[in-house]
Every structure is written in structure tokens, then in C-alpha cells.
From TrEMBL:
Assembly and binders: Homodimer, forms a heterotetramer with a Cas2 homodimer.
Protein name in the entry: CRISPR-associated endonuclease Cas1
InterPro entries, A to Z: Cas1, CRISPR-assoc_Cas1, CRISPR-assoc_Cas1_C
UniProt-listed NCBIfam families: cas1
Organism: Candidatus Andersenbacteria bacterium RIFCSPHIGHO2_12_FULL_45_11
GO molecular function: DNA binding; endonuclease activity; hydrolase activity; metal ion binding
GO biological process, one term: defense response to virus
Database matches in CDD domains: Cas1_I-II-III (cd09634)
Superkingdom of this protein's organism: Bacteria
A Pfam family: Cas_Cas1
Keywords: Antiviral defense, DNA-binding, Endonuclease, Hydrolase, Magnesium, Manganese, Metal-binding, Nuclease
Length: 242
């Protein structure tokens, strides 16, 4: 009974959290870190594509902008979720513009599209994000948080808002880094994903999910870092609501 009462308070706290002063800080932190992760991945990719001037320019442009936005979002001038999402949208556009230059496709105008994309590249990204969403949801439920109650995403098409809020922090390190690497190593176009390709992709994603990263001065798998962050978020939610 005590546990049920505690969980009930946490659910109410999640609902009320959007109306607290801490909400904006959390939203800014998520998107700032997402832009930082985009910049980190682009910086790594830039090392391997400097000999291609056109690619280098596009990657460097996206890298610089995402670094700038990661800083700008944390300033007092960004005082609403609308401003946060407008800045994030521009940064994301440039990020995908850079990624698109790296994909070897029979169609020179390959674009990141969703849903219902039929080309192997978009399918691979979709598989990766579905994988990540399931992993994040498991951690959210384990943390006794409601995945249906988000921060800045809203519920649509059976997508749990909080899952997609938290995913913003891990798309690049868990999914994009894997998919881009798989499709740029062979330097050739792919017409379809075979069962072997999909199995290899999922195996790589599982490995990335367990990849050790530095967190608060210690080394933990990404999976554990997500768990720690959600536990911290749950405490912040409860403390922010009277």
C-alpha cells in the first residue's frame, strides 16, 4: 500500500512538473546535450572525410552550429520550450544534412525520411531508434516513472512522450554512430537490408548499449548511465512539486 501511494504521488508529480520552474531547465539540458552529442559524432566523422572538400564543409558547418546551440540553449534568453525546439530543429536539420552526405546511395539525393521509408538506410535508422525506444522504456518503467507523461514531447501514434524525451540524449551515441559506420565503411550503395545485415545491426546496437562511458568520473555502460539519469530525474520531479 505504501509503495502504491508513493507511485501515485510520483505520477501526480510528473503531471505537475511541466508547470514548475525546474521543467524548463530539464528541457534545456536535454536538448543542449543532444546538440553536444551531435557535435561530438560529427567531429569524429570529420577526421575521416577531410579529403572530400564538399563533405568537410557540410560536416564542419553542422558541427559548429550544434556546438553553438548547445551553449546558447543554456542561456537566460532561451526562456520557453518553443524557443528550445526552434533552435533544436535548425541544429537537427544541419546535422542530418551532414549525415546525408556520408551515405553511399544510388540516389544522390538521399534524405532522412520517416515513417514508411523503404530504402535500406532509413530502415536501418528506424530499426535503431525502435531498439533504443524499447530499451529506454524498460528503464523508465523500472524507475517507476510513467512513460506516457513527457517533458516536451506529446503522445501520438502510441509513442510514449517520456521515452522520446529521454531518447534525445542517446540517439547519436547508441544509434547514429552505429548506422553511419555500417554504411560508410564499404563505400558502396546498398539496395536492401538482408537478414544478415539486420542481425549484424542489432548485434552492434546491443554492444553499443553496453559500451562503457565516463559518467561522474567513473566508467559505466550506457545502459547504467540511463538508469542513473532516470533515477535522478525521478527525484528532481518529486522535489520540484510541493
Amino acid at each position: 500500500m505504501l509503495q502504491q501511494s508513493h507511485n501515485g504521488f510520483r505520477i501526480v508529480a510528473q503531471v505537475e512538473y511541466r508547470h514548475t520552474s525546474a521543467f524548463l531547465s530539464t528541457a534545456k539540458n536535454i536538448i543542449s546535450n543532444k546538440c553536444h552529442n551531435c557535435a561530438c559524432l560529427l567531429r569524429r566523422l570529420l577526421r575521416y572525410h577531410r579529403k572530400y572538400p564538399n563533405r568537410e564543409y557540410v560536416i564542419q558547418k553542422a558541427l559548429s552550429y550544434n556546438k553553438t546551440i548547445a551553449q546558447e540553449i543554456t542561456t537566460d534568453s532561451v526562456d520557453s520550450s518553443r524557443k528550445i525546439l526552434l533552435l533544436e530543429a535548425r541544429a537537427a536539420h544541419l546535422y542530418w544534412e551532414a549525415v546525408e552526405t556520408l551515405i553511399y546511395s544510388n540516389d544522390d539525393a538521399w534524405k532522412r525520411t520517416y515513417p514508411h521509408a523503404k530504402d535500406p538506410y532509413n530502415i536501418a535508422f528506424n530499426i535503431g531508434y525502435t531498439f533504443l525506444a524499447r530499451k529506454i522504456r524498460e528503464e523508465i518503467v523500472f524507475s517507476k516513472l510513467m512513460p506516457e507523461i513527457g517533458i516536451f514531447h506529446i503522445e501520438r501514434n502510441n509513442h510514449d512522450p517520456l521515452v522520446y524525451d529521454i531518447m534525445e540524449l542517446y540517439r547519436q551515441p547508441v544509434v547514429d554512430s552505429v548506422v553511419v559506420a555500417l554504411f560508410t565503411k564499404k563505400k558502396q550503395a546498398h539496395n536492401a537490408l538482408s537478414a544478415v545485415d539486420i542481425a549484424r545491426l542489432i548485434k552492434k546496437l546491443e554492444q553499443q548499449w553496453e559500451m562503457p562511458v565516463m559518467y561522474n568520473g567513473k566508467c559505466f555502460p550506457i545502459r547504467e548511465m540511463v538508469s542513473f539519469e532516470l533515477h535522478h530525474f525521478a527525484i528532481c520531479v518529486e522535489q520540484a512539486v510541493p
